[in-house]
Amino acid sequence: MVTHTGWSSDTSTEDPRSLGELVSDLSEQASRLVRAEIDLAKAEVAAKAQQAGIGAGLLAGAGVLALYAFGALVATAIIALSNAVAPWLAALLVTVALLLLAGALAAVGVNRLKKGVPPTPEHAVENVQEDVAAVKKGFGA
C-alpha cells in the first residue's frame, strides 16, 4: 500500500530501506561531509601558509641585498653632505632621516600584518555555514 504524505520527495514506490538504515545513511553522509569540510580547511590553510613562506623567503633575500646597497647609499649621502657641513653633522642628519623613514615603514608594516592575521580558511567556514543551513532547512527547523 502506497501512502502520500504531501512531501515533494514522495514517489509512487516505497523505499525498501528501514528507518534504521536511513538514519545510518544520514550519519554516514554527515560524517563524510564533516571530513570533507575539514580536508578543505586544511588544504586552504596549507596553500596560504605555502604562499606566505615563499613570500617571506623572497623578502628575506631582497632585504639582505638591499641592506648592502643601503649601507653604500648612506655612506655616499654622508660624504656628499660633509662637503656642505661638518662631517659629524652630516652623519647626524642622515641618521635622523633614516630613523624617521624606519618609523614610517614600521607603522605601515604593522597595519599590513594585522590585515593578514589570523589566517582563517574563509571558504571552508562559508561552506560549513551553508551546509548547516541546508540541514536545518531539510529538517524543517
In whole angstroms, the N-to-C terminal distance is 30 Å
**Beta strands, count:** 0
Overall mean confidence score, pLDDT: 86
* SS field, number of helical segments: 3
Which spans have pLDDT < 50 for at least 5 consecutive residues? Answer: none
CA gyration radius, whole angstroms: 32 Å
Strand content: under 5%
What percent of the residues sit in helical stretches (DSSP H or I)? over 70%
Structural class: mainly alpha
Number of domains: 1
* Helix/strand order, N-terminal first: HHH
Looking at how many chains there are and whether they match, the oligomeric state comes to single chain
What's the shape?
rod-shaped
Largest sheet: none
Structural features, described:
There is one protein chain. This protein is mainly α and 141 residues long. It has one domain (19-132). The chain is built from 3 helices and no strands. The protein has helices at residues 19-81, 87-116, 122-139. Helix 1 (19-81) runs antiparallel to helix 2 and helix 1 (19-81) packs antiparallel against helix 3 (122-139). The chain starts with 18 loop residues before the first helix and ends with a helix. The mean pLDDT is 86. Keywords: Membrane, Transmembrane, Transmembrane helix. InterPro entries: Phage_holin_3_6. It comes from Cellulomonas oligotrophica. The chain crosses the membrane at residues 58-82, 88-110. This is Transporter.
